[in-house]
Amino acid sequence: MSCGNAHETDCSEVLDHLYEYLDEEMSDDACAKFREHFDECHPCLEKYGLEVAVKKLVKRCCGSDDVPSDLRSKVMMRIELVRRGEDVSEHGTLSAEITTTEAPSA
């Protein structure tokens, strides 16, 4: 996505790293670049606002659920594989791992 205007930080870069920004996983310099971009780019600001709303909704609806530590480590491993550009399908499906990790229902 691009708004068609030239920015110091391209729209596609901002949207590719939006969750890193939302999760405060970026350097202060990178965050400043993103804030500047949002100040001048209405479409990216709207996308940011939508993602903030979704994140708040998920937290409100699911925030009290305890996540098994082994599930968390599996998810983090998948994220790392994706970041490195590896094919996660070679490592099995996460949904199968989630099913085996979940506690049986009463």
What is the topology?
Layout lengths: L10 H6 L1 H5 L5 H13 L1 H21 L6 H15 L10 H8 L5
Helix pairs in contact: 3-4, 5-6
Question: What are its keywords?
Answer:
mainly alpha, 6 helices, 106 residues, globular, disordered C terminus
Please describe what this structure looks like:
The chain is mainly α. It has two domains: 11-62, no CATH class; 69-101, no CATH class. The protein contains six helices and no strands. The protein has helices at 11-16, 18-22, 28-40, 42-62, 69-83, 94-101.
* Span between termini: 46 Å
**Residue share in helix:** 55-70%
Number of helices: 6
Oligomer classification: single chain
How would a textbook summarize the main sheet? Answer: none
Rg on CA atoms, Å: 17 Å
- How many beta-strand elements? 0
Describe the global form: globular
Quick description:
Residues 11-44 form the Putative zinc-finger domain. The chain has 106 residues and is mainly α.
